[in-house]
Amino acid sequence: MMRLDIVSIFPEYFTPLDVSLIGKARERGTLDVRLHQLRDWTRDVHKTVDDTPYGGGPGMVMKPEVWGEAIDDVIGDGTPRMIVPTPSGRPFTQELAQELAREPWLLFCCGRYEGIDSRVMTEYGSRLRVDEVSIGDYVLAGGEVAVLVMVEAIGRLLPGVLGNACSAVDDSFAPGAMRNLLEGPVYTKPPVWRGHEVPAVLLSGHHGKVARWRRDQALRRTIANRPELAAGLDPATLDKHDRALLGELSFRVGPEDVAN
Ligand code: ADE
Description:
Layout: E1 2-8, H1 20-28, E2 31-37, E3 50-51, E4 61-62, H2 64-75, E5 81-91, H3 94-101, E6 105-109, H4 119-125, E7 130-134, H5 144-155, E8 192-193, E9 196-197, H6 207-225, H7 227-231, H8 240-248
Parallel strand pairs: 1-2, 1-6, 5-6, 5-7
Antiparallel strand pairs: 3-4, 8-9
Helix pairs in contact: 3-5
């Protein structure tokens, strides 16, 4: 059982957590998600959560006092791992998702505006493990959607959440054989749709040829869509066939040549 606390001024953002895999995990008791309205911890009639930034500049900063009261109440004597979504954070990766999936208790603190007064992270950083985390190099209006992304990525890794235990290990970014390779295209019935045929090899029943074709497709797609990922492939993980394909595509892998 994993406990997740989410503090936000828009707890309505999290209704998607009632459905699908995560919703089922909550019903079964694998996941205990608790949503909190940050404004419940304000003490003024206007329920103020933000103020102008010291040093000037655009936008508003979330006030430390209200965050402190909220977090103190939510955690009590406990020590959850605290995650603060921000475009200035460390990257959220499959590796971090796997690490977080092993924690018993996560606390997500969603900032809006220009972010949360940094002393909040300093204060709790002395008591909890605190990570500021970014889900990608773009700027959202607030951390809520980033937390939805992280909760879904973490939730599907929890034991018993995915129907098929293998689905989670074969992912493009999961550690293992396919590391640094994107997954190739997939097909199902019918064998011809609007004149488009399923690649014949997939209907051949020849498992060796299917595996080889899938690996070729994975390599091609990685080179096309994520050349930086393809360039980082370890040459030791490439067989003769892979090297021939890379040669045809004039693509070089391995460590960058450095001048001097
Ligand atoms: N808040 C705003 N943009 C974000 C991002 N890219 N990742 C995490 N939190 C955010």
